[in-house]
Specification:
Number of strands: 7
Strand order of the largest sheet: 1-2-3-4-5-7-6
Radius of gyration: 15 Å
Order of helices and strands: EHHHEEEHEHEE
Helix content: 25-40%
Largest sheet: 7 strands, mixed
Strand content: 25-35%
Number of helices: 5
Shape: globular
């Protein structure tokens, strides 16, 4: 079974929006009301917003394919400081999502390693990210990859709902 990691192009915007919506719902759909989740999706994962993000030179989106089938995606933002992290430059690892049917195949590790290589090759001193405190699968994954919890911050889902998140970081040696 062949795996490929490919950059997301502007012509892929509909696929990016589809996989973003589906994976967000699979991962976080139970963390708030259906109305609040849909409000977040409508505001943040539509083709217009994603197209604008793709145009920004600091944002790097990648699809991971398993046997030529879309399995998930990632987004890393280079040179994205955070007030709780003193060392610079640092990358924000903003998204790593797999479709549920691709869990357990090692694809998350492959996609993470790809993003780690991008950060290092662009002279970042580390990476940081947010993880919902109740996302035990993601917490285990990031701990396995040497991320440490250093702070907490709420992640705004809608005007009426926010989820507590851990701020995690990994400094490169």
């Amino acid at each position: 079974m062949a795996t490929a990691i490919v950059p997301v192009r502007s012509s892929d915007i509909d696929q990016l929006s589809w996989v973003s919506k589906r994976t967000f719902t699979e991962s976080h759909g139970h963390s708030a009301s259906a109305f609040d989740i849909q409000e977040y999706i409508n505001r943040n994962l539509n083709t217009s917003v994603l197209r604008q993000q793709l145009r920004s030179s600091g944002n790097h989106f990648y699809f991971i394919l398993k046997d030529q089938e879309l399995a998930g995606y990632s987004k890393i933002i280079l040179d994205q400081p955070h007030p709780s992290i003193a060392w610079q430059p640092v990358a924000k690892f903003e998204r790593l999502y797999l479709l549920g049917e691709f869990y357990g195949l090692g694809l998350g590790d492959e996609l993470f390693a790809h993003n780690l290589d991008i950060a290092r090759s662009n002279h970042q001193k580390g990476m940081w990210l947010f993880v919902w405190v109740e996302n035990e699968r993601a917490l285990r994954f990031y701990h396995k990859h040497d991320f440490q919890i250093i702070d907490q911050q709420d992640f705004k889902i809608s005007e009426n709902h926010a989820n507590p998140n851990h701020l995690m970081c990994r400094k490169f040696s």
